[in-house]
What does this fold into?
Amino acid sequence: MKLPRPIAVIGGLRIPFCRNNTQYMRLGNLEMLSAAIKGLVDKYNLKGEILGDAAAGAVMKHSRDWSMTREAVLSSGLHPHTPAHNLDRACGTSLSTTIELGTRIAVGELDSAIAAGVDSASDVPIVFGRHYQQILLDLNRARGFGQRLKAISRWRPSDLKPHFPAVTESRTGLSMGQSCELMAKEWTLTQKEQDELAYASHMKAAAAWKEGFYSDLVMPFNGAERDNTVRPDTTLEKLAKLRPVFDKTNSGTLTAGNSTPLTDGASAVLLASDEWAKSHGIPVQAYLTHFAVSAVDFSSVSGIYREGLLMAPTYAVPKMLDAAGLRLQDFDFYEIHEAFAAQVLCTLKAWESADYCKTRLGRKEPLGSIDRNKLNVKGGSVALGHPFGATGGRIVAGMAKLLAQKGKGRGLISICTGGGMGVTAILER
It folds into this structure.
């Protein structure tokens, strides 16, 4: 696949990622997204500019967020003539906004765009049951006292019981963690293996913060100056003492320590054509050259577990590699989203498995292994946190900077999502 014209990744910016119910507990998606986009506008001196489009999304959102991205753009300092729209694909949201806008740049429709994402695990929508909803709607539709009284008479005290959102799959009733626990069992992962990856994630993230890698990628916001999810003082011994949280029997291996924490945050990335970047005197950090999306059959009609919920990237990556004429080993950096340490390990084992690659992916040979020293070199989601809609923007911005620092190279991005999907991309310089 050859794009009609290059998709330039200029750079990105985000607010610090914070555990839910901490620094951003009183804020919503719009406030966080507005801050990230405004920060990006300020970083690249775009005040008053008309960009081609902006796209962002969130997984956990209120009905009031129906025009969230447009409202954030109107508060960003960009010219009000800059359009915007919402888009969501679970944890792959901001990588999907990057791909969608990037494709439109490639075909010449746009010259510039902002791809973004946000999520709050603190300011979640709390709703009431359908019975109470129907009473309220009937009250609103009522004509006269008699109809209103009839609607009110159906009310019961139990109607006031709130319904909190849950990160579960409607077809299986399983949470993402429970689904990943099934994957860990299928691939016979131990807690020790997962803890080792989680420990490395924290150590690399802490080192990256200390060396200043994130200094121009993260802006202070609402009293937070850095991600408060990173644990530089953790040890393998501490991680080993944590108990399973999704399968509390002796066979469970996923703990709070080797899973991503519930996180609030927002990220934004500036995309453009080469011509636009040159006319504005802004250097290009990297180019988005290939991308692919896949899905797996993680449930049957009867709800029986079939394929791993988070295994779709194992399908998307080889499809993308074939289109690019590349091997899995042809990369300088790998960014595999750590929804859980187990997800990363299952994905790597699947690519190394001749049987999986033959029976599931239809390949004659396994994709093989990667150099683990090139994996999530500045920390991953287990350490840095995972605001669902914002993770893709964090990864794209970090990968672009890595390639710019190296001066050349190629990076692979892989993100699993709820709904059994995977979103992947290649950045090059």
Observations:
- The chain has a mean pLDDT of 95.
- The CA atoms of residues 143 and 361 lie 60 Å apart.
- The chain has 14 helices and twelve strands.
